[in-house]
C-alpha cells in the first residue's frame, strides 16, 4: 500500500468512519492500510486500567505509560520485517497547527501512527520513550484552538486530509488544485444549473464562455473572500493588501 496508518485509541469504534466512502475505498484498493488498535488490549489488570491520578495533584486523570509502551511495541512489530519506523502524531490542543502544508508533508510518509489521548493527556515519559528508546519522530499536532474530549475526532480529520492527498485515493487530481488553502487564498463562489433559480441569476461572466474573463473574475472573488474572511492569509505575494479590495463576498 502507498501508506500504512496505525491508530491507538480507547474508543476504536470512533474510527469506524474511516471504513466509509473515499478512505474505505482506498483501503479496499490497497492504497491505504489503516489499522486501529484498542489501548486496553495492552493492559493486564481485571479493569483494563489505562489512567490514574496526576502526580502533583490537579483535576482529571492521566493516561498511564505502560499500556502505551506496549501498544507502540505492538504497532512497530506488526508486519514490519525491516524494522521501519512510523512517524508518530499525537493530536493535542497544545500542538503545532495542522495545516494543508502539514497534510501534504504527512502524505509523503510511508507510515503514520496516531496516538489518541483521552483525559488530560498521556504521561510525558511516553513521548520521551518514543523519541529516545524507540527512535520515533513524534509530533504533537493541533486542529485549532479549541478543546475536544480526546484525539479521535482530530485523527479522523487528519487521516481524511492526508489520505485524500495520497496518489490514487482521489480520482480526479485536478479537483485537488483549486481548493481553499492550496495556494493561500479561499475558494471562489461556485454555481451549477439552473442559471436562474428562485429569482437569482448566475453571474453572467460565468455563462460568457470568455475563459480569460472567468479566470479573472474568479481570482478577484478569491481575493475578496480572503480579505473578508481571512485577512491573516493575505500577504505581499498576492500583490494586494486587504486595504484596497472592496469587500463583496
Ligand atoms: N487528548 C486530547 C484531548 C483534547 C483534545 N482537543 C483537541 S485534540 C485533543 C486531544
Task: Explain what the structure shows.
It is a single chain. A 5-stranded parallel sheet has the order 2-1-6-5-7, sandwiched between helices. It has a two-stranded antiparallel sheet with strand order 3-4. The chain has a two-stranded antiparallel sheet with strand order 8-9. It is built from 6 helices and 9 strands; from the N terminus they run βαβββαβαβαβαββα. Helix 1 (21-28) links the parallel strand 1 (3-9) and strand 2 (32-38). It starts with a strand and ends in a 20-residue tail after the last helix. By secondary structure, it is of the alpha/beta class. Residues 91-93, 117-118, 121, 147-148, 150-151, 154 line the site of 1,3-benzothiazol-6-amine (JAE).
Residues in β-strands, percent: 15-25%
Fraction of residues in helix: 25-40%
What profile does the largest beta sheet have? 5 strands, parallel
Q: Return Rg in Å.
A: 23 Å
Runs in which pLDDT lies below 50 for 5 or more consecutive residues are none
Q: What is bound: which ligands? A: 1,3-benzothiazol-6-amine
Regarding quaternary structure, how should these chains be classified? single chain
List the helices and strands and how they pair.
Layout: E1 3-9, H1 21-28, E2 32-38, E3 51-52, E4 62-63, H2 65-77, E5 87-97, H3 100-107, E6 111-115, H4 124-133, E7 138-142, H5 152-163, E8 196-197, E9 200-201, H6 211-229
Parallel strand pairs: 1-2, 1-6, 5-6, 5-7
Antiparallel strand pairs: 3-4, 8-9
The structure holds 1,3-benzothiazol-6-amine.
1,3-benzothiazol-6-amine (JAE) binds next to strand 5.
Amino acid at each position: 500500500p502507498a501508506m500504512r496508518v496505525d491508530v491507538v485509541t480507547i474508543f476504536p469504534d470512533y474510527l469506524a468512519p474511516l471504513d466509509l466512502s473515499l478512505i474505505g475505498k482506498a483501503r479496499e484498493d490497497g492504497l491505504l492500510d489503516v489499522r486501529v488498535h484498542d489501548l486496553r488490549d495492552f493492559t493486564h489488570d481485571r479493569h483494563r486500567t489505562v489512567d490514574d491520578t496526576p502526580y502533583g495533584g490537579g483535576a482529571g486523570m492521566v493516561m498511564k505509560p505502560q499500556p502505551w509502551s506496549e501498544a507502540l511495541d505492538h504497532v512497530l512489530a506488526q508486519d514490519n520485517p525491516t524494522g521501519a519506523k512510523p512517524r508518530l502524531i499525537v493530536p493535542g490542543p497544545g500542538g503545532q497547527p495542522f495545516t494543508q502544508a502539514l497534510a501534504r508533508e504527512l502524505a509523503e510518509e510511508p507510515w503514520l501512527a496516531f496516538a489518541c489521548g483521552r483525559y488530560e493527556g498521556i504521561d510525558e515519559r511516553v513521548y520521551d520513550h518514543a523519541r529516545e528508546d524507540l527512535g520515533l519522530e513524534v509530533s504533537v499536532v493541533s486542529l485549532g484552538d479549541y478543546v475536544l474530549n480526546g484525539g479521535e475526532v482530530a485523527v479522523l480529520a487528519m487521516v481524511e486530509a492526508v489520505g485524500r492527498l495520497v496518489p490514487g485515493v482521489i480520482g480526479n487530481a485536478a479537483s485537488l488544485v483549486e481548493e481553499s488553502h492550496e495556494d493561500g487564498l479561499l475558494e471562489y463562489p461556485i454555481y451549477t444549473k439552473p442559471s436562474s433559480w428562485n429569482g437569482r441569476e448566475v453571474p453572467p461572466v460565468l455563462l460568457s464562455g470568455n475563459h480569460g474573463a472567468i479566470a479573472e473574475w474568479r481570482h478577484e472573488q478569491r481575493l475578496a473572500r480572503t480579505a473578508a474572511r481571512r485577512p491573516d492569509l493575505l500577504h505581499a505575494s498576492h500583490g494586494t493588501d486587504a486595504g484596497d479590495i472592496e469587500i463583496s463576498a
